[in-house]
Amino acid sequence: MRIFVNGDQREVEPGTLALALTALGYGGKKVATAVNGRFVPAPARSATALNDGDKLEVVAPMQGG
Question: What are the b/e assignments for 9-46, b being 16+ CB within 10 Å?
Answer without folding.
Answer: eeebeeeebbbbbbeeebeeeebebebeeeebeeeebe
